[in-house]
């Protein structure tokens, strides 16, 4: 059976949450050399897929929790740009509380939608080939994230749209939005007519990929994140340094 070298296994820990799986795989496979070894293609791909499944599931779970988006400054969804331009005017009209509630509701809608991300990532992982795995290994620090972007953006958009439409109503976002801009648009020369669902969908997906990229970057660049001997050897090797 075709064999390739151990460095590919390191990608089984692209998220810290997937390292338990990689540790089990590493411990259960017999050593084939003092400092290097080889694994079958099937073993490597299976281990990578299992770890990525766990990692993306945990990323989705983290963002779908209460305040998963709202409490994370890097991905918190603010008012759309055209609305931000008139936010001070809205507050001067006595709508400050409504603005705050609107921002919170946008993030709650994204958190609700994030629950549907896991099966989409799992499907992309199932379709991963050994060529894909090698491309991730030899690619840059965001190679795995870019793989997911290419394979899942359209599906995530299709899945998130109806969920966010429903969630925006569920958390009263559309009500707060109407409360704000029904008043503002009466006096504005340029009314604000943002497609709120499309805006939140795009921002929610951006947040998912940001989280995946953060976890990928961690294992690639942070030595303390390499919790097994295999990871230490792979990412501390000259090959890893010159990737």
UniProtKB/TrEMBL annotation:
Keywords: Signal. Residues 1-22 form the signal peptide. It comes from Filimonas zeae. This is DUF4197 domain-containing protein. It comes from the Bacteria. The lineage of its organism: Bacteria, Pseudomonadati, Bacteroidota, Chitinophagia, Chitinophagales. InterPro entries: DUF4197.
């Amino acid at each position: 059976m075709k064999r390739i070298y151990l460095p590919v296994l390191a990608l089984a820990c692209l998220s810290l949450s997937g390292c338990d799986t990689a540790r089990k795989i590493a411990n259960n496979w017999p050593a084939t050399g003092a400092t290097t070894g080889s694994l079958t293609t099937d073993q490597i791909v299976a281990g990578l897929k299992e770890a990525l499944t766990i990692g993306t599931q945990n990323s989705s779970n983290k963002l779908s929790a209460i305040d998963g988006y709202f409490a994370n400054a890097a991905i918190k969804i603010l008012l759309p740009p055209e609305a931000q331009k008139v936010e001070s005017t809205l507050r001067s009209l006595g709508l400050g509380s409504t603005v705050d509630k609107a921002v919170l509701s946008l993030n709650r809608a994204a958190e609700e939608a994030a629950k549907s991300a896991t099966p989409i990532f799992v499907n992309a992982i199932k379709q991963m080939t050994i060529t894909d795995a090698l491309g991730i290994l030899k690619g840059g620090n965001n190679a795995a994230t870019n793989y997911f972007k290419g394979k899942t953006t359209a599906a995530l958009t299709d899945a998130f749209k109806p969920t966010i439409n429903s969630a925006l109503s569920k958390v009263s976002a559309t009500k707060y939005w109407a409360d704000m801009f029904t008043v503002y648009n009466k006096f504005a020369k340029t009314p604000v007519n943002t497609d709120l669902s499309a805006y939140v969908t795009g921002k929610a997906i951006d947040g998912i990929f940001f989280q995946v990229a953060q976890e990928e970057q961690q294992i690639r660049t942070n030595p303390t994140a390499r919790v097994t001997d295999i990871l230490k050897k792979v990412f501390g090797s000259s090959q890893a340094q010159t990737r």
